[in-house]
Amino acid sequence: MTTTNHPIAISVQELVKSFDKVMAVDHLSFTVPKGTIFGLLGHNGAGKSTTIDCLLGTQAYQSGHVSILGEDPIKVRKKLFQKVGVQFQETAFQSQLKVKEICQITHSLYERPRDWQKALETFGLADKKQAFVSTLSGGEKQKLCILLAVMGNPEVIFLDELTTGLDPKARREVWRYLHLLKEQGVTIFLTSHFMDEVENLCDQILILKEGKTIARGTVQEVIEASGQKNMDEAFLYLMGEEF
Ligand SMILES: Nc1ncnc2c1ncn2[C@@H]1O[C@H](COP(=O)(O)OP(=O)(O)OP(=O)(O)O)[C@@H](O)[C@H]1O
Q1: pLDDT in tens, 53-65
Q2: Which CDD domains has this protein been placed in (predicted)?
Q3: Would you state the torsion angle of the CA atoms of residues 63, 65, 71, 73, taken in this order, to the nearest 10 degrees?
Q4: Cα–Cα dist 214/114, whole Å
Q5: CA separation, residue 58 to residues 77, 83, 191, 212 (Å)
Q6: Ligand 1 in contact with 68 (CB < 6 A)?
Q7: What is the pLDDT of residues 152-205, one digit of tens each?
Q8: 232 FRET partner, CA 20 to 30 A, in 27, 43, 164, 199?
Q9: Ligand 1 centre from 46 Cα, in Å?
Q10: ipTM
Q11: Which atom of ligand 1 is nearest to the CA of 211?
């Protein structure tokens, strides 16, 4: 299958992944059209990260099928790496490196990278260029993670727990930036525990519970289907935790 004129950026069909007796992902299916923002939601342990790992080809699965840009991530990992950005958690960093060094190293990995100095400015990190990553605040590290995820000018980006640790101003800056990326045609797959974030960003959402889909659609559709007033209440209601 080729990647040209393929309206679907991400496809997951009947995905099954278990760890011993834990069914982490249970016959999960969804697609994400190109140029849209998709939110995968659910409590801790619902299966979100496992789904992302299967999609990125870093976790083998028992059955089903996944594809990114029409390709099997396990088979064409190197090629997809140039088109797919991933926000790693800050612990994946070599924190004895300076911000500038980690940017330069990441920059060198891509065929058509962004101007990293400009990106630092966009993320309000320009004055931290010479700082060691270990000295950054939690929020600054988080912004750096997002910056590194977009360094290769990806067509698809995976952002796991997007703005955890960011202050309200930084969260809004990140949201604005993601809207900008979407306008440029980038497909964004995110997980989040913040319903205001989900409402602001996501075109489509899917709520997972114990690896199974319990709701999907636009934010509005999910709120309406739940019979609740807003996304916060809809989420709790659907998770079986209505008050
Ligand atoms: N390597 C592993 N070995 C055994 N069980 C695992 C492993 N990775 C995940 N699990 C289990 O699979 C289930 C799904 O975990 P996963 O990390 O995908 O959840 P999550 O929705 O990403 O949670 P969080 O919001 O906390 O990141 C959990 O029950 C978890 O304990």
Answers
A1: 999 998 999 999 9
A2: ABC_DR_subfamily_A (cd03230)
A3: -40
A4: 38
A5: 9, 16, 18, 21
A6: no
A7: 999 999 998 877 778 888 888 889 889 999 999 999 999 999 999 999 999 999
A8: 27
A9: 7
A10: 0.96
A11: 14
